[in-house]
Amino acid sequence: MARSPETIELLLTRRSTKALTMVEPGPDATELQTILRIGARVPDHGKLAPWRFVVFQGEARRAFGAILSEVYARVQPNAGDDQIEFEAGRFLRAPTVVAVISRVTPGIKIPEWEQLLSAGAVCQNMLVAATALGYGAQWLTEWYAFDPEIGQALGLKDNERVAGFIYLGSESVAKDERPRPVLSEIVSVWPGKAE
146: how many CB neighbours lie within 10 A of its CB? Predict the structure, then answer.
């Protein structure tokens, strides 16, 4: 039996890094490919690959930020200049941002719920992979994951929606541990069929 204590320790201690505190460098091209490959190596009943990736790096982050700020100003007409500027800089918070797009194939034997869960597993695998490579990572949705105009800018089809934006970069501050659920409060053992 192969054991990997390092993997267990990583999973027990993994913690998201806030995008607001990320700095350069982000993953290089080879590391990003590794993160994406690990992201795509999730349970996928029916081998559908019910997800895809959109990568934002370099000036593409600024260009997408211009779209975010324009849409935000339209949907929030009372927003101040500071907030609109913040929206413009959203994707500049991290060196790399990856949109994980869930794409559901309706009307097949694989339940839509399983397809959606597979996209969630992609996001989690990417967080773990980035952490294993020494990077900070955060999975966010926020308003722009649900906005139809932003969906158009991402080229979403009718069967697609954003599962999350994965921000990737280096950590600039130490992460604090946060309280975790107490297992005795969330775990039960099924007693079996009542007789």
Answer: 11
Contact (Cβ atoms closer than 8 angstroms) between residue 170 and residue 25: yes
Q: What is the DSSP string of 99-139?
A: EEEEE--TTSSS-HHHHHHHHHHHHHHHHHHHHHTT-EEEE
Contact between 74 and 173 under an 8 Å Cβ cutoff? The reply is no
Question: In this predicted model, what pLDDT tens digit does every residue of 33-71 receive, in sequence order?
Answer: 999 999 999 999 999 999 999 999 999 999 999 999 999
Q: Could you list the residue range(s) of the whole structural domain that residue 141 is in?
A: 19-57+92-173
Question: Is residue 192 a part of any domain in this protein?
Answer: no
Give the number of domains in the chain: 1
| Per-residue pLDDT, 175 | 79
> Which residue's structure tokens are 């941002």?
97
Q: Which domain CATH number covers 48?
A: 3.40.109.10
| d(C-alpha 139, C-alpha 52), whole Å | 15
Computed over every residue of the chain, the mean pLDDT equals: 95
